[in-house]
Amino acid sequence: MIIGIDFDNTLICYDSVFLKIADELGIKLNGETSPKTELRNLMRMRKGGEWEWSRIQGLAYGRMIIEAKPFPDVEASLLRWIANGHSIRVISHKSIYPTAGLPYNLIEAAKNWIHENFPRLLSAEFDIDHHAFFESTRKEKLKRIARERCNWFIDDLPETLRDIDFPRGTLSLLFEPGQDLGNQLQGKLRRIRTWKEISSIIDSSRPSERPLDQENSEDNDSREPKVVFSGLIQNRLSTSLLDIEELRGGMNNRSYSLRTSDGRVLFGKIYKQSLSDYRDRFAHEVKFLSYSEELEGRRTPTLLETDANAKAAILTLEEGALWPDETDAPLEIWNRFLEFLLDLQQKKDLSKAKKMPRAAESCDTLQEHLDLVSKRRNLWLARAKANEVEHELANWIQIELEDAFQKLAKRMISSELFRKPISPAALIISPSDFGLHNALFAKDGSIRFIDFEYAGWDDPAKTISDFFAQPRYPAPRELYEDWKSTLASLLPQEEVKSFSERLPLISSCIELKWIYVIMGKRLSTEPSTNSSESEDIKRQLRNRLGSFVEKMDT
Fold this sequence. Notes:
Elements: E1 2-5, E2 12-13, H1 15-24, H2 35-44, H3 49-61, E3 69-70, H4 74-83, E4 87-93, H5 106-117, H6 119-122, H7 128-131, E5 132-135, H8 138-147, E6 152-155, H9 158-162, E7 171-175, E8 185-186, E9 189-192, H10 195-203, H11 225-236, E10 241-247, E11 253-260, E12 265-271, H12 281-292, E13 303-307, E14 312-316, H13 331-343, H14 351-354, H15 366-385, H16 391-414, E15 428-430, E16 439-441, E17 447-449, E18 456-458, H17 460-469, H18 480-488, H19 493-522, H20 532-553
Parallel strand pairs: 1-4, 1-6, 4-5, 6-7, 7-9
Antiparallel strand pairs: 2-3, 8-9, 10-11, 11-12, 12-14, 13-14, 15-18, 16-17
Helix pairs in contact: 2-3, 3-16, 15-16, 15-19, 16-19, 16-20, 17-18, 17-19, 19-20
């Protein structure tokens, strides 16, 4: 069997750490719950307490982790499982640096703690570099559990085990140390208080085989594109493939011009899918285009055939050209994008609409939005600290950019909506990554909207924020209020206030995220000479950051 285990508060017990922090803060705990839970609840009752609690967590999981101890019977259980032929995976949701406070490397701290506290485990076929995973978001943690094909997973957070993306074939145990469990079930979750109980349950279980992870595994279809498309065209379109030509420009997929024996020219796509990226671009686009066929007035390519094994699709080849760079589009053109977005809501009660997934990087909470920005921030902060970027840029990342991130984090974390999930009733159907960069303009004035690899159900606040933050073709700001009021009108009345409160926070999040994205796309991580092009990019980044900070300060 493969047994997966969360790290924080499942393997490692922080009771002594949080008791010490409480004592240093002059806070007396009554011992009715765990020190972490009691201190957290007391801090959250204070003004600005959520932010201070985040700083405390960074301290506990970073500099003070060395004072934490393993839960009783942990190592004995792990060693026995390995001796019995089982494999162990530590899978944790943990960022490189804490969101609030000094940038102490939390992952290195966790690995060092394992080395210090489990020396026998490390000499018993547990390789910390290959069997311990620290993922930036909960979604990535869930995908890792599936990818490692865990038979069991043990966690202290019920929301992880109840998540819709928790692997169906994995058995779970909810670890609640020191709790008076009463009923041993919490919903469908089995609640366990000690590691002896965990050991007893898993030792007596005999799952027959590892769970399959077909949806999240690397594509094993090794056929050449010509073979894939020839089969689709011959078997399903009643013609044959005469010629195939790979097209340039596809960043997240491979695109082809397909000429058939009956004179048609079609568009073929093979979608990128890898274990390092949980997004299923094939499913997003195929389900979106399938739904769009039900709408009046065709504005998107027609989906002709698909091959799920090869992650391949054949679409109609649309006529038209991209909007020319450095050329302003008139307001009439921009208004067509809002018309398209409204058209997508026409039949959202259809079964095809309900089958669409959540849009890529769709978030239920403000906390998840901040996690996505934190992931990019942590990578660049680590590169800057490791001198993997030139000195001037490294200083800018660690000082000015980090100060801006801390301002955003404090505002997000201090919001009453920070942990509040968005209601399903507040979601809309979103093309996600859309704008002038993903539209074709025909000579007759018609527009075809293309590329829906991230499309799905999403928060309208994120849809607006994405659209107006796109750097290549910035949408006119004078349209912002019109978009805001129009999308608000699509929502139930009871959701409008929450939408209006989320919007400025999500917009700030996405604006800062784009600064990190631009650095990743246009600046080398290797130290280099100061070319005029890189200097121009740095000026753009500083200008964007200046505008961002100005908005945050007003």
